[in-house]
Specification:
single chain, 265 residues, alpha/beta, seven-stranded mixed beta sheet, 6 helices, EC 3.5.1.68, N-formylglutamate deformylase, HutG_amidohyd, N-FG_amidohydro
Length: 265
């Protein structure tokens, strides 16, 4: 087997199990020349899915493949379609190359947002290599096992984001595109894990039903299932300082581990 890619765009750990964990918003790097065009608050990359690669590192022990990008979603959002079609029509979202933060405040200084030509260049430079690697790993695992599951690991500030949702987001938000991206049997196993734990509240196909990657790459008839888990960041980190909380994370990792084992059952 060829060595897994390790580039300035993403890193890919190739595992042996029929499970690929994709963490498309873990990256926080913003090139200096781009950061110089942003408002000061955006230069911190506040809308990063902070530390999810640390949170999911244990999945290697389950044999999972893991793909992690280097760059911030502010450079390009890897979980958006390349034509920037809205995933949640009628609701506020951020775009392929976001011009607004999750708070609704601008990302860029006046007149510094990217034009169509720059967006197209970012898609080629950052978006396409990640997706080509996703496709390659999906097909490798499917060919090897006859089936595979793509697990989308995400996190978000769970409250005080009225631009995106009202009130408090549940701790765990499981998305299967309304049941279209995985088999009924897999969804039932995952829901059984959520019902059987007592530490977190949860929603299934609520505000976050699954983004572009979950919806686009799922092909249940071919043996490719996809699931998204959006975790409220209060459960494993400090949402203001972005500091990781290992003791909180350990409790959450136990539940995520049970979900991933249900995937492999």
């Amino acid at each position: 087997m060829n060595a897994p890619p390790d580039t300035d765009i993403f890193t890919l750990h190739r595992g042996t199990a029929p499970l690929l964990v994709s963490l498309p918003h873990d990256g926080s790097h913003i090139p200096e020349e781009l950061a110089a065009r942003m408002v000061p608050a955006a230069r911190r990359a506040p809308d990063t899915d902070w530390h999810v690669s640390v949170l999911y590192d244990f999945a290697r022990e389950l044999g999972a493949s893991i793909i992690v990008p280097r760059h911030s979603r502010y450079v390009v959002d890897l979980n958006r379609p390349p034509d920037d079609t809205s995933l949640y029509p009628g609701q506020n979202t951020t775009g392929l190359c976001p011009a607004v933060q999750f708070t609704g405040e601008p990302v860029y200084l006046d007149g510094q947002a990217p034009d169509e030509a720059e967006v197209a260049l970012r898609v080629e430079r950052y978006w396409r290599p990640y997706h080509e690697a996703l496709i390659g790993e999906i097909e490798r695992l499917r060919a090897q096992h006859g089936r595979m599951v793509l697990w989308e690991g995400h996190s978000i500030r769970g409250s005080n984001l009225p631009f995106l949702f009202e009130g408090r987001l549940p701790d765990l938000n499981l998305g299967t595109a309304g049941g279209a991206s995985c088999s009924p049997a897999l969804q039932q196993r995952l829901e059984a894990v959520l019902e059987g734990q007592i530490d977190y509240d949860y929603a299934v196909n609520g505000r976050f039903k699954g983004g572009y990657i979950t919806r686009h790459y799922a092909d249940v008839a071919r043996g490719v299932e996809a699931v998204q888990l959006e975790v409220s960041q209060r459960n494993y980190m400090d949402e203001d300082s972005f500091a990781y909380d290992a003791s909180k994370a350990a409790v959450l990792q136990a539940v995520i581990g049970n979900l991933l084992r249900a995937v492999l059952a």
